[in-house]
Every structure is written in C-alpha cells, then in structure tokens.
Design goal:
Blueprint (H helix, E strand, L loop, with lengths): L2 E6 L2 H14 L2 E5 L4 E12 L8 E2 L6 H13 L4 H4 L7 H5 L3 H10 L7 E3 L14 E9 L2 E8 L2 E2 L4 H19 L3 E14 L3 H13 L4 E2 L1 H11 L1 H13 L1
Parallel strand pairs: 1-3, 7-9, 8-9
Antiparallel strand pairs: 2-3, 3-9, 4-10, 5-6, 6-7
Helix pairs in contact: 1-7, 2-6, 2-8, 5-6
Length: 245
C-alpha cells in the first residue's frame, strides 16, 4: 500500500497536492462493501498556515450554503437532534461535544501535554454498517501555537476531504482562541484516501485543472464568509422543518 506525504502553505494548496499525489500513485482495487472499485493510498497532508488565504478550494462539489451547513453541523451540532430522534446513528459533534471542554482545560493545564485527544470511534462502530470515518483528533501546543492532527480510517478524497478539513480547521481555531494561542499547523491523515469508480471522471478533471494552473481558489474572509452568512436563515429554516417532522 502506498504511503504519501504532501504539504502546502494553505488548505487548498495542501489539498490539491494530495489529490495530485493520489492520482499519480495509487492502487486500484475492489471495494465489495459498496459494490464498486476505488483508487487508494494512505495519505498525510500538512497545512502549514491553515488560516492563511485563500482558504476555499474550487475542487469540491459544494457551495457556500453546503459548507456553512457542514460547519454548523461539526462545530455547533445543529443536526444532533437527528440522533436523539433515532434517525441518525451519530454526528461528529455529538461524539465530540463533551470532550472539547476537557481538551481546552488540559491544554491550559500544560503546554507540554500529549493527552489532549478527542476520541470519535466508539464500541458502537464495531457493530454498525456505517462506522465513523474520523477516528481521533489530537491537539498539541508547540512553539507557542496550537497544532491539530487528525486521523481518518477512510476519507473520500473528492467528496468529503475538503469539507472535513475546512470544518476541523475552524474547530482548531475555536479551541486555540479558548486557550489564548495562535493556530499552528493542521495535519490530516487518511489511512484510506480514496476515490470511487463513479467519481473517476470528476477526479481526473480536478487534477487536470490543478496541473493547468489558473484560478483554483476563493478567499474565505471577505468573500465566502459573507455568502455563508447569507445562507444562515435558510439553514435555520431547514433545521426547524426537520425538527417538526
């Protein structure tokens, strides 16, 4: 199995480098659980300055509304009630919520700590057909900054990775602000970084655009954040409608 490491100054640069690395170096194999085939490698990408603009990549299938909804799901738990109603097995926020305050206090307790870990996987994941992809998050204070390292057992490179990383970086900032430190590096590890056969054409198109250069990004602050803000009333309405069902 191929082991790939890439870096980038910004989130889009690191993510784009990861897509190119997977495109160039991968195994192609069957994926019987989903009755398809996939291209796969183990990939780690490091974002050296996670909050540096541009933060938004054009190489993902979402829009400002979907990115804002995902941000709210991950950071604020706007759909956690679906778990309580029995419609969803879990949300990442629901599994993280009680651990985050402890992580903040642990980071305040000791700048040298290696214990500030959020565990996502539970015993439930051993019995379900939809176990969590994100496994754990670790926060480390080194060099006066808060660094974040995440582990995914499985990560869909074209349809999930960018949104995962974007939301986790904003969570990193929230924790860094609570601790009173600047944001350090963000490291995203996927033991199975893959693309499914149905998305091969999209994947090839993404990589062609990346290699061709040109404008592949947007700024978050002053551009997408404003459009994401405009989407909040629509998202809030959707949440209320779901609660009433």
């Amino acid at each position: 199995m191929f082991e790939l490491l890439v870096k980038g100054t910004t989130l889009p640069e690191a993510y784009h480098n990861a897509l190119v690395a997977l495109h160039e170096t991968h195994d192609e194999l069957a994926c019987p659980d989903y009755n398809t085939r996939q291209k796969e490698a183990s990939v780690t990408f490091v974002v050296e300055k996670p909050l540096q603009e541009p933060m938004i990549s054009k190489m993902f299938i979402g829009d400002p509304r979907s990115l804002e909804q995902y941000r709210q799901e991950m950071l604020d738990g706007i759909l956690d009630f679906e778990v309580a109603k029995g419609k969803w097995d879990y949300t990442y926020h629901q599994r993280m919520e009680k651990q985050i305050p402890w992580v903040i206090e642990e980071l305040k307790r000791s700048e040298e700590t290696r214990r500030a870990v959020v565990l996502i996987r539970t015993e439930y994941d051993m019995t379900t057909d939809a176990p969590a992809c994100l496994q754990h998050i670790q926060y480390l204070i080194r060099g006066g900054a808060l660094h974040c390292k995440v582990l995914f057992r499985s990560n869909d490179s074209t349809k999930a990775t960018y949104m995962n990383a974007f939301a986790l970086i904003l969570l990193q900032k929230r924790i860094a602000d609570a601790v009173g430190l600047p944001v350090g590096t963000y490291t995203h590890r996927a033991n199975s970084f893959h693309v499914y056969e149905r998305d091969y054409d999209m994947f090839d198109g993404y990589v062609r655009r990346i290699k061709a250069g040109g404008e592949l990004t947007y700024d978050y602050v002053g551009e997408w954040d404003e459009m994401m803000e405009e989407a909040k009333p629509e998202i809030a309405k959707m949440v209320e409608e779901l609660k009433e069902r």
